[in-house]
Structure formats: C-alpha cells, structure tokens
Design goal:
This protein has 221 residues and is of the alpha/beta class. The protein contains ten helices and eight strands. The longest helix has 17 residues.
Length: 221
C-alpha cells in the first residue's frame, strides 16, 4: 500500500502525505504511463553535445490513436544536464514538425553534484524553460510523482499542467525549505503543509488545470 494518509476523495490528507505518496516505490512511473498511452514509441537520445541521460529522462515520439506525439518523461531520478538538453532538442524538433508535446514531470530536482555543475546544469534547465515557453505547438504536462524545484518547473507547460493523486509540485522540497528556514527536522512535515503542495492545493491555487486519475493508477499496486 502507498504510505500516505488519504482523504475520502483518494487524495492525500496532508502535504507530507503527498510527499510520501509521490516517493512511494509502489506508484506507477514513466514507463508505465508511456506504455499505457502509446501504441508504439521511437526513442530520441542524446543532447548533440556528447551527453545522454537514460536514467533521468525518456524522450522520443510515439503514436496515440493514430496521431504522433512527442514525449519527454522524467523517471523519478534527478535529471542531469544532458537530459534537459535532450528534452529541449526534442521540443524544438517537435515544434518545427508541428507535433504536440507531452511532458511527464517526476523528479526530486535536477542533479546538483559537482559533475552536473561542470556540465552546465543551470544553462541546460534554462534551455528547457525557453523551449517550452517558445513552442508554438500544444505542450501538455502531467505531474506523475515528485515535482521538485526548477528541475520540475522547467518541463511544466504554463496554463496546461495537470497532476495525478500520486504527486506533489513545489518550488522546493520540504526538507530543503525547512533547512533554508533553519527549522529543526521535526518541522519538516509541517513545512510541507505550509508549502501547499498537494494536488488539491495546486488546483485551488490555479497552478494546475485538474487532477487526473486514470486506468494506469487504478491498476497500480
């Protein structure tokens, strides 16, 4: 079972419950959503700078009900600079071809180790922000798990972002927010509530357009 307190609506009762649910190993991941949505997929890999990020993001084109859709789907790990550059490349290509784009957000935040900094993490994230903002084709985002910090925000389509009950979306993870505010670890859970990161909070605040529950979640463990 998902380790989170649920309201009668099936949504998390508290902000910390939303975080626990998003981090649960039992919830569906990108592969599950992509397999359920597309009949066929063709991957696109590489950032044209010699880098790849197969563990952090899946990019490519797929067929859904006879129509081609581009996808950039985070896998739940910290996305690396090569992954963001690959996503930006995909979005720009889809824009030139007139193909709509689907992004799946699921990351605790961008990779922030020394190697990621050397590879230009900030510039790579900014590149995705620009690609999403400049796209003339429809870009639709579904937050399927963790939506942490700028690493998640970069892939979120303005005005067309949706969320599942298994997700949270925040400018910063609760642990980091508490640390910045110099709060003790015992206050992390209350900080999560104050951030208003539950799907229903996001809907009330107008950050997302709706909460999506589908057969992928219904069939999940």
């Amino acid at each position: 079972p998902v380790p989170a307190a649920l309201a009668p609506t099936g949504l998390p009762d508290t902000g910390w419950a939303a975080v626990q649910r998003a981090r649960s190993p039992e919830r569906p991941r990108a592969h599950t959503y992509l397999d359920a949505y597309f009949t066929t997929r063709v991957p696109l890999s590489g950032d044209r700078c010699g880098g790849t990020d197969p563990d952090g993001i899946l990019c490519g084109f797929g067929e859904h009900q006879g129509r081609t859709v581009a996808f950039a789907a985070q896998t739940g790990a910290g996305t690396r600079p090569a992954g963001y550059r690959t996503a930006a490349r995909l979005i720009r290509l889809a824009d030139r071809l007139g193909v709509p784009v689907l992004t799946l957000v699921d990351t605790p935040g961008a990779a922030n180790d020394a190697e990621a900094e050397r590879q230009g993490a900030g510039a790579a994230i900014a590149e995705v922000f620009g690609a999403v903002a400049g796209a003339r084709v429809p870009v639709t985002t579904l937050v399927i798990g963790e939506g942490g910090s700028g690493g998640a925000l970069a892939l979120a389509a303005p005005g067309n972002t949706w969320a599942t009950p298994d997700s949270y979306f925040s400018v910063i993870a609760p642990e980091l927010a508490a640390a910045i505010l110099k709060r003790p670890r015992e206050e992390i859970e209350s900080t999560a509530d104050q951030l208003r990161i539950r799907p229903q909070d996001l809907l009330e605040l107008g950050i997302i357009r709706g909460i999506v529950r589908n057969s992928v979640q219904d069939n999940a463990p």
